[in-house]
Amino acid sequence: MYLIFFFFFQELHAHLSGSISDETILKLLGTKDASLSEDIIEEMKSILKMKDKRSLEECFKIFSLLHTLTNSISNIKTCTYDVIKEFSEDNVWYLELRSTPKNVIGSYTKEDYIKAVLETVREAEKSFGIIVRILISIDRSRGVEDAWDTLKIVKELRNNVVYKKYIRGIDVSGNPSKESLLEYLPILREVREMELKLAVHLLELCESVAFEEAAEIFSEGLVDRIGHGTFLNQKLSGKTSHLVNVVLERKIPLEICITSNIKCGTVKDLASHHVNWWKNKDHPIAICTDDKGVFSTTLSDEICLYCKAVDGDIQDVMDMISTSIEASFLDENEKAGFKTANF
Ligand SMILES: CNc1ncnc2c1ncn2[C@@H]1O[C@H](COP(=O)(O)O)[C@@H](O)[C@H]1O
Ligand SMILES: [Zn+2]
């Protein structure tokens, strides 16, 4: 299986803040940024020590803590640059990085945040010969008003050809136990109008409301890729949802993040991971990291886990690589060009 290290990969599901490595965190803590209290620094150091299992709820506390690190434009740039560098060192030639624009009063606006990320992406592409595209995240726990505000900024930025080239889509993420996605349907329709691609975290929890959300989103054909879809193929009240057939028929690709699911406890172990079920159906999947910093993983580790889970070989890895280029938010000409360049 060590042969996989000769491959070049695509990463389609990586959250910027969750991907920040321990090295970058320690570097930023070492700069003694005056706005970080001693308590936050201590808390940050303690989360670096415990990297095993933690519940989804605990993960969201860690994300809030990580957000205190990106409290200046200079820190946002450092984190973005380092994350891209680390993916590139892990043989990633194409990266779709997603992040939630934030504003910090007196420091930066959401627009400044996005511009800082995009400028750093351009710089990092030149330094590392990697191709990076950006998905702007909507965090469902921040409310619909916040999402409309983000969308308005994205619309304006996309009037600029350079920004348009980099911003390929919208991601909907955030704590799935907060706010129903049904509230966000008008936002998702607007994303479609803007001709942006859409990736939505769906069915991370096995709750009836999660099935209702997914049913609405599928019925309007709003989603291009599904984040996790952990419980799509599971039985609820003894029955498998009809939604699984919709996803299979429409071949909506799934972004699969094995370590993230296991460490959050939404999947018990590798043997029971849903990736095997979807692979057996020959369904398009992309193996991804989700939050490589928070979960201490790399894309090559995830691909090794995938091989283990499906008892796969090099051909399975090559097939998955090819499917995930197809599932990427590159346009058709770019896909064709990159396919010939990679194989
Ligand atoms: C573990 N499974 C997950 N499920 C749902 N949302 C997740 C997530 N992992 C990360 N995020 C989303 O990404 C944000 C951090 O990156 P950015 O600040 O946007 O760069 C988190 O706050 C959350 O909204
Ligand atoms: Zn995610």
Automatic annotation (TrEMBL):
It holds the Pfam family A_deaminase. Its cofactor is Zn(2+). Keywords: Hydrolase, Metal-binding, Nucleotide metabolism, Zinc. One of its GO terms (biological process) is adenosine catabolic process. InterPro entries: A_deaminase_dom, Ado/ade_deaminase, Metal_Hydrolase. It catalyses: N(6)-methyl-AMP + H2O + H(+) = IMP + methylamine. Residues 11-337 form the Adenosine deaminase domain. Signal peptide: none annotated. GO terms for molecular function: adenosine deaminase activity; metal ion binding. Belongs to the metallo-dependent hydrolases superfamily. Adenosine and AMP deaminases family. This is Adenosine deaminase-like protein A. It comes from Armadillidium nasatum. The lineage of its organism: Eukaryota, Metazoa, Ecdysozoa, Arthropoda, Crustacea.
